[in-house]
From TrEMBL:
Gene3D superfamilies found in the cross-reference section: Ribonuclease Inhibitor
Annotated InterPro entries: LRR_dom_sf
The protein, known as: Uncharacterized protein
Length: 146
């Protein structure tokens, strides 16, 4: 069964860090409504492809490995980029084998200092519109990136 951490009425008001490994999530939905103080989010080997919706004012670290996004319609386009843009305190973004980010991804990262994308398979486009504090950018084996 899928775990739905964004189910109506479910809230973790004091949660500051989450690390999930080998779980079946319905979605990567973490917002001020369900995790208002979240600062660190790490996901490893999510068992099914899921949608992504982040909107976290205090998130500073986002790391995801061996996981996939699910895109069903045009509404799902740019869910990666828009989610990151809705986390204005993000300092570090790291991914390994994070798949299916789609054709259209743009983001605004006002506080991001480090971006590491390793083996982002099926990611064809990533446009960083604004990242004035970026000091480290690592892209390795992003074969589909244009």
């Amino acid at each position: 069964p899928e775990i739905d951490l964004a189910a109506e009425g479910l809230c973790f008001p004091e949660l500051r860090s989450i690390k999930l490994s080998c779980v079946n999530l319905k979605s990567l939905t973490f917002t001020e409504a369900n995790t208002p103080k979240l600062e660190r989010a790490e996901f490893f080997n999510l068992l099914s492809a899921c949608r992504m919706n982040l909107a976290l004012p205090y998130l500073t670290v986002f790391n995801i490995e061996h996981s996939s996004l699910y895109e069903e319609s045009s509404e799902d386009e740019n869910q990666f980029g828009l989610s990151l843009s809705r986390c204005p305190s993000l300092v570090s973004l790291s991914s390994y084998k994070f798949r299916f980010l789609g054709d259209s991804n743009f983001c605004i990262l006002p506080n991001c200092e480090t971006i590491t994308l390793h083996r982002s398979e099926c990611t064809r486009h990533l446009e960083i519109w604004y990242a004035p504090k970026l000091t480290e950018l690592s892209m390795q084996a992003a074969f589909s990136l244009e």
